[in-house]
Amino acid sequence: MNIKLIAIGKTDNKELQSLIDDYTKRLSFYIKFELEIIPDIKNVKNVSESQQKEKEGELILAKITPTDQLILLDENGKNFSCHWWSLWFFRHGIR
After folding, report:
1. What is the DSSP letter of 21?
2. Each residue of 56-72: pLDDT tens digit?
3. If you classify domain 2-68 with CATH, what class do you get?
4. Is 10 exposed, middle or buried (0-12, 13-18, 19+ CB in 10 A)?
């Protein structure tokens, strides 16, 4: 199984970046994992929030293929346990 995590904007927090690097390294022992950071959009003061989201969506869609399984993670979304994700991957034939 290959997992590609696409994120908008990199962090300036050194501690958080260290944790991300450590977790990425740990995952690489079990699965093929890739973290791809899409740079923040420039001049966001000149565009509306919906236009910014539209542009970010276009950048994300340019990084995936039609056969990819797409899962949106949102900080305000529903929380799922590791067990739930394990079952979800199994049910979708992702191993």
Report:
1. H
2. 999 999 999 998 888 88
3. alpha beta
4. middle
